[in-house]
Write a structure and sequence with these properties.
heterodimer, A: 112 residues, five-stranded antiparallel sheet, 11 strands, globular, B: 112 residues, 0% helix
Chain lengths: 112, 112
């Protein structure tokens, strides 16, 4: 019930491509879905987050798509750049939970 | 603001030794967390705290202890270190449970 499944584990795209990372959850009480970005040797940092009252949220080149009925959400990176190469984690929280449940992470490489 | 600071950055322990990982935040956040990150395994919650004097177990608490005597500090104690505790440890804080979590830079621990 608390698990968040993330795919793919790794992803390689060319510069300008649109990588898509997917997450699925089971707990219908979840109502907060953030994405974190982590560069090598650094701690994760919040990238963008969505609540289930909207189906899409854009911040710059980053977009979250949310499908409440399918219990899935995804991160799209438009016009990807080599500087976007990092590990991306989805997460979820809600209901009585006082902590985030993280996905297993996706290592993204954007080739120049 | 320094945000979340962690010390030390690196440490090598021998099996059976003990140590304390320090974590301090200056954002007056109520919630603080300890995670461990193993390669390809995402972030696993060890312990968390919702305020001074209140702590609770996360997903992987065995072999660790915490205390929260002040709002600012949340040390993680390893007793009788084992090779399975070789990992990167991250401390994080947030104003509320589902809010943005701010991560420290991490402590890379090796147990030999």
């Amino acid at each position: 019930q608390q698990q968040v499944k993330q795919s793919p584990q790794s992803l390689i795209v060319q510069k300008g491509g649109i990588p898509i990372i997917n997450c699925a959850y089971e707990n219908t009480a979840f109502d907060y879905f953030p994405w974190y970005q982590q560069f090598p040797g650094k701690g994760p940092a919040l990238l963008i987050a969505i609540r289930p009252d909207v189906s899409e949220k854009k911040e710059g080149r980053f977009t979250i798509s949310f499908n409440k009925s399918a219990k899935q959400f995804s991160l799209h990176i438009m016009d990807s750049q080599p500087g976007d190469s990092a590990t991306y984690f989805c997460a979820a929280s809600g209901g009585s939970a006082r902590q985030l449940t993280f996905g297993s992470g996706t290592q993204l490489t954007v080739l120049p | 603001n320094a945000g979340v600071t962690q010390t030390p950055k690196f440490r090598i322990l021998k099996i059976g030794q003990s140590m304390t990982l320090q974590c301090t935040q200056d954002m007056n956040h109520n919630y603080m967390y300890w995670y461990r990150q193993d390669p390809g395994m995402g972030l696993k919650l060890i312990y968390y705290s919702v305020g001074a004097g209140i702590t609770d177990k996360g997903e992987v608490p065995n072999g660790y202890n915490v205390s929260r005597s002040t709002t600012e500090d949340f040390p993680l104690r390893l007793e009788l270190a084992a090779p399975s505790q070789t990992s990167v440890y991250f401390c994080a804080s947030s104003y509320r449970g589902p809010d943005t979590q701010y991560f420290g830079p991490g402590t890379r621990l090796t147990v030999l």
